[in-house]
């Protein structure tokens, strides 16, 4: 039976963060459990530029659209390769960092992640069959995120991006009041990510290899 493929996306432009430690624990455990793991680290890997033309937010359909940038093609191939996606990011200003949002804007494009139908208001969810996990850190208290921010960062990623494109979210973790936490709390969180990595490696359903475009 083929090994499940997991893409870990670290959605912060700052290096050496708590999110990196959480993601590393998750990825190491997933590999130990038998999964193939790729990591996109937006503190080290190229952050795509903001789109400046319509052709940059859809798969090329005409010569006028031009080719996708090499890093965008690589990121799209990573998502297409994956059976399961794991997102790690901090909450900034009630949302996700611009680096992660721009990555999503340039990678989850029309013609790859979804496709509107020629008539009516329906669309095809082109990433169906994949699953995801979301881990968000924040300095806000949990009640503030829920009742003032309305959990906007998670809701946007979960409903307006992943589920819109057919990705089923298996779990969401919100780690609150990071700035006020003791080191023991952080270590406990990091250890807990290992459990998620092993669980997701066991639960991810490997899709047919021939369906993946390199």
Automatic annotation (TrEMBL):
Entry-linked Gene3D superfamilies: 3.40.50.360
Domain of life, source organism: Bacteria
One Pfam entry name: Flavodoxin_2
Alphabetized SUPFAM superfamilies for the sequence: Flavoproteins
Location of the Flavodoxin-like fold domain: 5-184
Keywords, in A-Z order: Oxidoreductase
PANTHER family: NAD P H OXIDOREDUCTASE-RELATED, NAD(P)H DEHYDROGENASE [QUINONE] 1 ISOFORM 1
Family indicated by similarity: Belongs to the NAD(P)H dehydrogenase (quinone) family.
The protein's name: NAD(P)H-dependent oxidoreductase
Lineage: Bacteria, Bacillati, Actinomycetota, Actinomycetes, Micrococcales
């Amino acid at each position: 039976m083929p090994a499940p493929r997991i893409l870990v996306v670290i959605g912060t432009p700052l290096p050496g963060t708590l999110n990196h430690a959480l993601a590393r624990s998750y990825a190491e455990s997933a590999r130990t459990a038998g999964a193939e793991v790729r990591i996109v680290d937006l503190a080290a890997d190229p952050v795509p530029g903001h789109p400046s033309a319509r052709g940059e937010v859809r798969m090329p359909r005409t010569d006028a659209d031009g080719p996708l940038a090499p890093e965008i093609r690589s990121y799209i191939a990573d998502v297409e390769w994956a059976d399961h996606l794991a997102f790690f990011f901090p909450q900034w200003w009630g949302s996700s960092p611009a680096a992660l949002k721009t990555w999503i804007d340039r990678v989850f494009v029309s013609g790859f992640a979804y496709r509107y139908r020629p008539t009516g208001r329906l669309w095809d969810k082109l990433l169906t069959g994949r699953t995801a996990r979301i881990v968000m850190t924040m300095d806000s208290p949990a009640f503030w995120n829920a009742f003032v921010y309305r959990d906007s960062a998670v809701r946007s990623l979960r409903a307006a991006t992943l589920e819109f494109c057919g990705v089923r979210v298996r779990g969401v973790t919100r780690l609150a009041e990071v700035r006020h936490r003791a080191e023991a709390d952080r270590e406990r969180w990091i250890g807990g990510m290992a459990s998620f990595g092993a669980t997701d490696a066991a639960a991810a359903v490997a899709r047919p290899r021939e369906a993946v475009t390199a």
